[in-house]
Design brief:
Helix content: 40-55%
Bound molecules: ligand C2E, calcium ion
Radius of gyration: 20 Å
Protein name: EAL domain-containing protein
Structural class: alpha/beta
Order of helices and strands: HEEEHHEHEHHEHEHHEHEH
Low-confidence stretches: none
Organism: Devosia ureilytica
Number of helices: 11
């Protein structure tokens, strides 16, 4: 194939073929895992910045590839979104996360990531997002105040009105809303502030760029911190990997910290031991 002219063989290079094959395999694997309930939730600890006590976990989905490896959500979530599988996966995540959290000590919360397609379903035969959450809370017995849903700026910007009304309904249930990956979107701040969220999560890229260029990044972080204070929302720093970053974000007045310094996402089998070692009096 390499003997064909310069621009003619691009579609069928061996590399391309491999990418397409992997992609097709992933699509099949996603549907298969959905029907066989083979997705797995890992849980990453979230700590109080001030006391360093455990306050909750973020649920992070994994897809076993069937050969002993985990496929990361960064790879398969965008595909699941494209092939229309994400809202069913997302419903499963909500139900499972609530069921897990109901077995934890009662002061601990669980945070669940949402995709745009999970909103705006209440006009179809499907159960809408609010009903799914309500049902998951009922079935698990989890106090709504222990559930937090994470959305992103881009998710909101895609469908502002639908998202807004469902977020309000979720807040009315007592569920918390976190604005995830804050600072990576280029949203219209004045419309962003009209959303009923209760927490800002500073994107982990800020920790990384602060490591590289503290003088430039510090004032930006300071601004985000004072914004969150004047809005009366909680502030969480993600991607905290070093003691210096802990000191930075704690010093800036963050309420909570999350990152490898405190714990990687834990497989379900490791949760019991972790909870015992982080028991609070
Ligand atoms: P996210 O919501 O921003 O989650 C944080 C990601 O950063 C996780 O990657 C986590 O493992 C990783 N992380 C945590 N602490 C550190 C750290 O100190 N350093 C570094 N370098 N990374 C850290 P993960 O688990 O691969 O998830 C990637 C993304 O996939 C998530 O980003 C989220 O957007 C999406 N995702 C995960 N689970 C779900 C889900 O159930 N539903 C949806 N819709 N998306 C999900
Ligand atoms: Ca998140
Ligand atoms: Ca994030
Ligand atoms: Ca992210």
């Amino acid at each position: 194939a390499k003997t064909v002219g310069r621009n003619c063989n691009v579609l069928f290079t061996p590399d391309m073929q491999q990418v397409l094959t992997r992609r097709r395999r992933l699509e099949t694997r996603i549907w298969e895992a959905l029907h066989a309930q083979e997705f797995i939730l890992f849980f990453q600890p979230i700590l109080s910045a001030r006391t360093k006590q455990l306050e909750g976990f973020e649920a992070l989905i994994r897809l076993p590839d069937g050969f002993g490896e985990m496929i990361s959500p960064g790879e398969f979530i965008p595909i699941a979104e494209e092939i229309g599988a994400i809202s069913r996966i997302g419903d499963w995540v909500i139900r499972s996360a609530c069921r897990f959290a109901a077995t934890w000590p009662e002061h601990l919360t669980v945070s669940v990531n949402l995709s745009a397609a999970q909103f705006g379903r209440n006009f179809e035969a499907d159960q809408g997002l609010v009903d799914v959450v309500l049902q998951a809370l009922k079935d698990s017995g989890l106090d709504p105040h222990r559930l937090e849903l994470e959305i992103t700026e881009s998710l909101v910007m895609e469908r502002t009105d639908v998202v807004l009304s469902e977020l309000k309904a979720l807040r009315d249930l007592g569920v918390s809303i976190a604005m995830d990956d804050f600072g990576t979107g280029y949203s219209n701040l004045s419309s962003l502030w009209q959303l009923p969220f209760t927490k800002l999560k500073i994107d982990q890229s800020f920790a990384k760029s602060w490591r590289e260029n503290a003088a430039t990044v510090h004032p930006i972080l300071d601004t985000i911190a004072s914004l969150s204070r004047s809005l009366g929302v909680n502030l969480t720093a993600e991607g905290v990997e070093t003691q210096e970053e802990d000191d930075l974000f704690t010093g800036l007045g963050c309420d909570q910290l999350q990152g490898y310094l405190f714990g990687r996402p834990l497989p379900p089998a490791d949760m019991a031991a972790f909870l015992i070692s982080h028991r609070t009096p």
